[in-house]
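Note to self: keep these together.
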Amino acid sequence: MRIWGWVLLILGILFLIMFVLAEFGGGHVGFVPFFVSGFLILMGWNLRKSGRGILRSKPAENAGAASPGQSSAPAAEFSTVELPLTPEIVAVIVRQSARAKRLLTYMAGGFCVLFVGLGIVLGATDKTPGEGKIFLAIFGLIGVASGLMIYGIWWLTAMKPVRRDLRGTTYLRTTGPVEVVSLGNGAMLRLADRAFLIDQRYGATELGALGWGRVDYSPHGHVILGAWDKDGRSVYCLPGYNAA
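Structure:
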């Protein structure tokens, strides 16, 4: 995740430089392109900062002793185990990834339409001969590139890993500290020994309120299947998932 953070951070900075140059060149690009650049920079910075587990390595056995002034709760212990992947769980993962695919397709198409529309507006309002077509070409290219970039990142970080999950034989259960970092319309789930992106609409609120608990998820696509608090009460579960 930290690698993708650097990618988004650099892309956001490059877009920002490009739009600043266009503004000084008389393009009058407006607020939206700068907002998009700032969004990419902010998301990249958050990914770079938060893309690691809460505990970098499993503590030694004697780390359970609380130091003076600290609580004796097991806040420094965690475990990650593999569980058998059944056909029922495969079906749950397939349904969830299909929802995500539709939403990302809409988002990528929205970016294309946004920049192409911006290019059309700028081209229609610019009175300098020849510049209208230049604006349309530039912003149309940016729109297509943005859409392809979003879809490509999603393919590499979500769809391809989910296919790898479906070819596997196990999924994971991590017990330990849980933290959710908000990233715009998405979220970063930080567990004890790993961190990965999740869809904010599917369990982020429930997981963010845990602090400590048990989370079941696929190992590569990171589809959250279910979560329980420290007392074993279910706080989130995908339809069709049976933890038993």
